[in-house]
Design brief:
Elements lengths: L4 E4 L5 H11 L6 H8 L6 E7 L2 E12 L2 E9 L8 H15 L4 E7 L3 H9 L3 E8 L4 E9 L6
Parallel strand pairs: 4-5
Antiparallel strand pairs: 1-2, 2-3, 3-4, 5-7, 6-7
Length: 152
């Protein structure tokens, strides 16, 4: 189990996230893709995991509605998967959201991402619904977790 340093990303560090995103996902995207997604969003949070100063993972979220924070996108570089980094990122995001007054965390995952599904269930999220993503022709599974449960 690797222990990463998790930090909140500044706007000047967004190119690092874009580079890491393009190492993890296809098709490749540019900064404008992220900036468009952030427009009109409240409390956008970008966090990065580093090992030995090397960016290896990230998580991005924003307020979905009052008291509900939404994890929009998370990824860990292929060389560093199955080392607990995704869980560290999600836990850090949950903690940030709880400390900023959010009561629930929401998450959506494509059904085909089985390792991520297992990780999210292990992190205490419950399945609360599904929806068909016609752009990807795949099922999205919706998860939610009460952040107040973590206080007890």
């Amino acid at each position: 189990m690797s222990q990463a340093e998790i930090s909140v990303v500044t706007e000047q560090q967004l190119p690092l996230i874009v580079e890491l995103y393009n190492q993890v996902f296809r098709p490749a995207e540019n900064e404008d893709y992220f900036r468009r997604r952030f427009q009109g969003r409240y409390n956008v949070l970008v966090m990065m995991a580093t090992l030995d100063k090397r960016p290896v993972g990230f998580t991005i979220g924003f307020e979905l509605k009052p008291f509900v924070f939404y994890n929009w996108l998370s990824g860990v570089h292929g060389e560093f998967r199955r080392k607990g980094l995704g869980r560290q990122l999600i836990d850090a995001q949950n903690e940030w959201a709880r400390n900023h007054g959010y009561e629930y965390m929401r998450f959506e995952l494509l059904n085909r991402h089985k390792p991520m599904l297992h990780m999210v269930l292990g992190a205490g999220f419950d399945i609360v619904g599904t929806r068909w993503d016609s752009m990807r022709s795949d099922l999205l599974i919706q998860f939610e977790k009460a952040l107040t449960d973590e206080l007890s």
